[in-house]
Specification:
single chain; about 180 residues; Rossmann fold; seven-stranded parallel β-sheet; globular
Length: about 180
């Protein structure tokens, strides 16, 4: 499969919206992590779609070095009720609707990796629609994209194609540098 994200654009600290089909979104997540890790980046995965335990297992099965990935997991505590943070590996948020805690976690985890080549992968905007309204998601993504630009960090937002309402899609398109439809 050809590269999803251009290494040159990633090096320029660009921000991407990557669209996938419902059937391929999990594989796109894995493909992106492989690509980004292969370019020497540490990836911070903000997951609203799959628990950390599942993603870390999937990544290990694909030969992805676990030291090159850390997580902000918004799923596990919402499903199990409790989970302990593992410093440098995973930080748990109570639920995907808690944007304040998610924003704080993003800021803190980015500080932990200061001075490194870092990329954020947000999986997925589509899942957030279960918990939040489109305007709230749009405001949060706007906040995150501005934070990434100010901190000179690349970011990738993963979403299911045709899973976003037209207004949200229009707004997201204005926040990112490139929209990549992996269909």
């Amino acid at each position: 499969m050809p590269k999803i994200v251009s290494p040159d654009e990633l090096a320029k600290k660009e921000i991407f919206l990557v669209l996938a089909t419902p059937a391929t979104i999990r594989q796109r997540n894995i493909d992106l992590i492989k690509e980004i890790s292969g370019l020497g980046y540490h990836t911070i995965v903000i997951t609203t779609n799959f628990p950390y335990a599942i993603l870390s297992k999937l990544y290990a099965e694909q030969g992805i070095d676990p030291a090159k990935v850390s997580f902000i997991d918004t799923v596990t505590r919402n499903s199990l009720g409790s989970a302990e943070n593992i410093p440098g590996v995973v930080r748990f948020i109570n639920n995907p609707a808690n944007l304040t805690d998610m924003g704080i976690a993003v800021t803190e985890v980015l500080k932990e990796h200061s001075g490194q080549k870092v990329c954020i992968l947000y999986d997925s905007i589509s899942t957030m629609l279960i918990y939040l309204s489109s305007p709230n998601i749009s405001k949060f993504i706007h906040f995150v994209t501005n934070k990434l630009r100010l901190m000179d960090i690349s970011g990738i937002f993963l979403a299911v194609e045709k899973g976003l309402d037209p207004m949200l899609m229009t707004q997201l398109t204005t926040f990112v540098d490139s929209v990549i439809d992996t269909g």
